[in-house]
Amino acid sequence: xxxxxxxxxxxxxxxxxxxxxxxxxxxxxxxxxxxxxxxxxxxxxxxxxxxxxxxxxxxxxxxxxxxxxxxxxxxxxxxxxxxxxxxxxxxxxxxxxxxxxxxxxxxxxxxxxxxxxxx
Length: 119
Ligand SMILES: [Zn+2]
What we know:
single chain, 6 strands, binds zinc ion
C-alpha cells in the first residue's frame, strides 16, 4: 500500500537523522501530507505503530501527521488560491496557468530527537 511505503521511508529518514546526530530516541515526527499527494494522514497514523514496532529508537515516538492544503499561484495575476472550489482555474482572471505552491508532496516538517534515555 502507498501509505505504508511512505511511512516506512519517513521512519527511515528519521532514523538516519537520529543516528547522524547521536540521538537516543526519536521523540516526535511531524509530517505534512499534501492534499494533492493523495496520502491521507489517517493512514499514516494507522501504519506508524506497525512500522516502528521492534524499533527501540522510536519507543514512545509521536507522529503528528496533518493534511496540507493545496495552494496555487496564478501566473497571470499573482493571485494565490485554493483550487478546491474553483476547478484549478484562477478565481480572479480565470487563467489555468498556475504554479503549485504547496500541497503536492508528503514532507517531514520536523523531527524531534532526544539525547538522553530519560524523559
Ligand atoms: Zn489569475
